[in-house]
Design goal:
alpha/beta, 2 domains, Rossmann fold, 9 helices, single chain, ten-stranded mixed sheet, 281 residues
């Protein structure tokens, strides 16, 4: 049974990702952990002295509200999808989001985190919202980021951008393969070359990747002397893909992706679900 963490602050953006998860894995047995975290602002000393307010009372109110909204969300999902393959665990926690997710991943050996994301308001060069960035950076678990307003489409074509510098292992590809098998997807493997032939290690990694993806339908492409965002954009002009995947390795494009203003200049914005897989688990 697949174990998937679904963080939500009950916004439209977050709940859209929750619904996307139900659609994507409708034919897969899953336990979904519906997670809401809260960190109420602590009353200042003067306020407590003048009103007799207690932080514990505030926490209780927010905790009860969190639990009620999680129960409402669960009922909404059960009523809409009526899927016997899906079960839900509700987690309401007075904690920071990344800390709580990190603990849940370790406790339940979670397979995937699916969360909504959108850049900061008015700042187009920021690809992900801050919560998504913190989770991707800290938590050693694949994250599927769903752009604000993106509604489910079957991922018949998946783009996997890579530099062949990763020593691929089964864990890197588990989610990709499970999705590709469900939807008989074609996985388009895009290698952005530095204008030279692959060295021995890169060739070995490429062969291992091809072996690990068996029996998934895959196709390899190489482009020379392009920035990664540009190569992805150009590929999408000729092949409509419904999912993008990359492995977050040290010293790669993803490490510098989040806050580079150049992203805005070359027009690379998150318009499809983006699966980010850590290089180490």
């Amino acid at each position: 049974m697949k174990k998937i963490i679904l963080p939500t602050d009950f916004s439209d953006n977050a709940n859209n990702a929750v619904h996307y998860a139900q659609e994507l894995f409708k034919d897969t047995a899953c336990t979904f952990f519906l997670l809401n975290t809260y960190t109420p602002i602590i009353y200042n000393y003067d306020y407590q002295m003048n009103t007799g307010g207690y932080l514990g009372d505030v926490v209780d109110v927010i905790m009860n509200n969190s639990k009620e909204k999680l129960e409402e969300l669960q009922k909404e999902l059960e009523d809409k999808y009526k899927n016997p393959k899906h079960q839900f665990e509700l987690i309401s926690s007075f904690s920071l989001l990344t800390d709580e997710i990190d603990e849940l991943v370790a406790k339940y050996n979670a397979d995937l985190i699916i969360m909504g994301t959108k850049g900061a308001s008015g700042v187009k060069e920021i690809l992900f919202g801050s919560n998504t960035i913190h989770v991707i950076r800290k938590v050693k678990c694949p994250v599927l980021a769903i752009p604000d307003g993106y509604f489910f489409e079957k991922p018949k074509d998946i783009l996997f951008a890579t530099d062949f510098k990763v020593s691929y292992i089964k864990d890197h590809l588990d989610n990709l393969k499970s999705i590709a098998k469900l939807y008989k997807s074609t996985v388009h493997i895009l290698h952005i070359s530095a204008g030279r032939a692959l060295n021995d290690k890169e060739s070995e990694n490429k062969d291992e990747l091809d072996k690990l993806l068996t029996p998934v339908n895959d196709a390899f492409y190489t482009v020379d002397d392009q920035e990664v965002p540009q190569a992805i954009n150009e590929f999408q002009k000729t092949t409509y893909v419904q999912l993008l995947m990359m492995i977050k390795n040290k010293h790669t494009f993803l490490e510098n992706l989040f806050f580079k203003k150049v992203i805005n200049q070359i027009g690379f914005h998150l318009t499809i679900p983006f699966l980010v897989v850590p290089s180490e688990f």
